[in-house]
Specification:
Blueprint lengths: L1 E3 L9 E3 L2 E6 L2 E6 L10 H17 L3 H7 L9 H12 L1 E2 L6 E2 L15 E6 L5 E7 L12 E8 L4 E10 L4 E5 L8 E9 L9 E7 L2
Antiparallel strand pairs: 1-4, 2-3, 3-4, 5-6, 7-8, 8-11, 9-10, 9-12, 12-13
Helix pairs in contact: 1-3
């Protein structure tokens, strides 16, 4: 918005093209109207909107966890925004109007620490999901005392259970209790590690499991 102190044509009131003249508290002002989009629903625009919506729907229940999982990449932004940037580029499949999350390619943690080796999730006991992995603490950068970061995401309910820093890399197994309402639902499971200095690993997809 601009103020008019003088004008050879007097005070402009009304619209000329994208410029609108008016007065406000006795002051003559000009403002420029935003450009109109000829077609706000092109295939490209609809595709981008669905990509954003699908990715946010997946990540929203994990927002608090992502502040830890993506903190190394959340420079000048929140963890969920950093996760959005990665997953919207790398974890989507299909085309509009059928864009969906490609769960095995999604990340819920990103970092330089050595990740989980042969991570597998299973559910044979009601209300629980069990994670198993191989102890790779001899790998460069890995320590036997690195702690687990676990995610169990339930797409049908858009809810997640997250567990931070209980088991260690050397333990090779950890069981997580989930809500009774998860029974019979297919859940997507992820695990990562965090070191004593706060460094995290990329998350590993531990599989899609039907909760007992």
């Amino acid at each position: 918005m601009a103020k008019l102190k003088e004008s050879v044509v007097g005070v402009l009131v009304g619209k000329i093209g994208q410029v609108v003249g008016s007065t406000w508290k006795g002051i003559s002002v000009l403002r420029v109207l935003p450009a109109k989009i000829a077609n706000p629903k092109t295939d490209k625009q609809l595709t981008q909107r669905q990509k954003w919506a699908v990715t946010m729907h997946f990540l929203q229940p994990l927002s608090q966890f992502l502040e830890l999982g993506f903190r190394s990449y959340a420079v000048g932004m929140t963890g969920i925004n950093a996760a959005m940037q990665y997953n919207i580029k790398n974890a989507l499949t299909g085309s509009w109007p059928n864009i969906a999350i490609d769960y095995p390619n999604a990340l819920v943690a990103k970092g330089n620490l050595a990740g989980a080796l042969n991570a597998v999730a299973s559910s044979t006991v009601a209300g629980t999901v069990k994670f198993d992995w191989d102890d790779n603490s001899g790998e460069i950068g890995a320590s036997s005392t690195d702690k687990t970061l676990l995610v169990i995401y339930n797409p049908s309910q858009n809810q997640a259970v997250t567990v931070n820093e209980l088991a260690e890399r050397a333990d090779g197994t950890q069981t997580v209790t989930v809500p009774d309402s998860f029974s019979g639902d297919l859940v997507q499971c992820y695990m990562a590690f965090i070191a004593e200095d706060g460094t995290v690993s990329n998350s590993a997809f531990a599989g899609a499991v039907t909760v007992a």
